TrEMBL record:
Record-linked SUPFAM superfamilies: Multidrug efflux transporter AcrB transmembrane domain
Species, as recorded: Achromobacter seleniivolatilans
Coiled coil segments of this chain: none
Name by which UniProt lists this protein: Membrane transport protein MMPL domain-containing protein
TM annotation in the entry: 255-272, 279-299, 305-322, 343-361, 373-394, 426-448, 669-687, 693-712, 724-743, 749-770
Database matches in InterPro entries: Mycobact_MmpL
Alphabetically ordered keywords of this record: Membrane, Transmembrane, Transmembrane helix
Superkingdom as given in the UniProt entry: Bacteria
Amino acid sequence: MRFQTERWLPRLFKLGLALVLCAGAWQCRNGWPVSANLMELVPQAAADATRQLAEARIQEPLSRQLIALVAAPAGADSAAPARLLAERWTRSGLFSSVQVELNVDVAALRAQLLAGRLAMLPAADREQLASDPATYAQRRARELSDPFSSSGLLPVDQDWLGLTRRAEQALRPGGAVQYDMGTGTLQAEHGGKRWVLVRAETRSDAFDTGSPQGIAQQIDQDRLALNASGAELLVAGGPLYAAAGRAQAVAESSWIGSGAMIGIILVLLLTLRRVRALLAFVPVAVGLLTGAVACVAVFGSIHVLTLVIGASLIGVAVDFPMHWLGKSYGMPDWQAWPALRRVLPGLTISLAASLVGYIALAFTPFPALTQTAVFSAAGLLGAYACTVCQLPAWMSNGWQPRPWPPLLRFAQAALLARERLAARRAVLGLGALILGAATVAGISRLVIQDDLRQWLSLPAPLLQQARQIGEITGFMPTSQFFLVRAPDTDELLRRQALVAQKLDPLVKRGDLAAYNSLSQLVSPAADQRALGQRLAALAEQPDVWKPITDLGIPFDALRVELQAMATLPVVTIDGALQGPQAERWRTQWLGVHNGEAAGMITLLGLRNTAVLEGIAQGLPGVDLVDRSGELNRMFAATRIEAAELKLLSYAVAAALLLLTLGRAATWRILAVPLAATACALAALGFLGQPLTLFSLFGLLLVSAIGVDYAIFMYERVAGAAASLVGILLGAATTLLSFGLLAISHTPAIANFGLAVALGVGFSLLWAPWLRPPVAA
């Protein structure tokens, strides 16, 4: 017999599904709204516009820049393969700029050095000229009389004091990369080879949909072409990392989803032995669709990492039809609508308990967890609606599953063995004691680990090339930097100079390879004027310059040069950043915002972040920005918050069970997920797996799944054996999906999958021990 409401349910479901499809089609009107930008999954920094600008500058190289080193075969033109690579990149149309040769306007550079010889003079030279000009004069005399001393860009008669030469030396890039006059390229000697530097900027962002893959393919072709001529190529850059991450995520989501689907098809065909039973997949498809549409509606796009984890939703969403169809093992007269009525209370309570677990994640500050929570919650609602409203209509009219008898016999034998074991109190007590001790021992071995690197799994060849480029060039950028702010530009440069004084000892000790500070490029305007006036005054003291005049240089020439210093125009930060010599400092200047000047000090080759502690202490307006460290600390805080949410979800589930099934059922049902969670934690400890935010997230889901299994074993609709069969089918499909996640190459996903797989396994082990209370 079919109720009137059951005739309307399929129509309502189809109407709702049509609306979801229309919403999905509209969301895809400009292409697939799928993102691979890892930064979208991490919490954003506090709303500080200057800091956000600084972080955007730091991340810019990750999104668009590529660095390549090309080595020619022995005896060949060192720059020819690099020029070939630059030509291929230019022709590809993938890059907005490609640079292999430095087209330096020497005349303009000379003019800039001459005009800014006071502003760009290193701090030590400025100090010596101001306080001890005689010593400076002696040193300059030694330079002039040394035939092996290198000369500068300007002839000596235009720079008797050697100020432009000193400024030019200070502006040269450090490390192993040097300008080669013969080829006009930047080169580095390493391992007996000369490596030529090629820099490029991509037209599209690294996180655009198709661009990174196109760049990766282009570089593969370039490598083949260069290798054919005996040349070697090393390339590193954010677009390549994005391409590798996207390819891995797409591949894993494809084979995890495909593997789970094939496994579940086999389970359905083997245990229900009807082709129509495959319609149980429809709730899964509906769940994935509604989850994706909900994510895009809330966040504007869906991340590939959410898709990978969401693919495992297959194993959870299919539980609804599994419990319903599994009742055929205990109901010889199984009919679609009547069977649904009997399991509907259990399905609904199970859905509510699962939603509690998922929704709790939405309150964590991590967008990654929030997005997954929205995807999973919406997906489960869609799967539930399809199971309850549409599936019975497709499987009515006398259709019945054909249960596989060996599975029912296995369930009956398992329950019988459990009854026999339960009757032996002594053995049961000893087993419980051993299990409790093992659980405590396992949990005590757990190591807590919160690290952003768990989100990444880059191919070894890419990491090796990046490491080689760092070793050859001597430059390995770090994510940590100092943000310096001041009321005006002069004070900004002075504050940067104070930070630089604290960084210099780190460089000498080898803890830091180098750093870039605007104070290395230009001095404060007031200091420029003061030094100019001081040198002009020294024009009246010929004795100070006697070491130079003793070489035969007329003092009148020196006097003219010294007097000209007072009339030199002041060089501002913007003025100093013009020209090719200032390229390495160009991104350091953040400008003036709301009456506050701001700039960065970036670090290269940092070996230990701990050495930076205390450097900003006592310096006004100076902040150390360590985004990766902040995220790791936030991981730890969120892990604690997730644990608190887990306890809250248990409380909500307890209240729900208390209202629907009563007090006796509540503690019995909750005992299953609690025991499964404890055993899963112990197993992680024995397996040497760390407890991370992601494994805790997985165990949060286990609480919902464990409650699900316990409810069906408690209700025992169609008998305990039939309920156990339904749980076995549900656990098999869940383990197929989450078990496959455990072998993902991304540590975070693998950790999550392993935790859920262990939790589901232990839930399956403990749920059959649940029995309803004996009636009085």
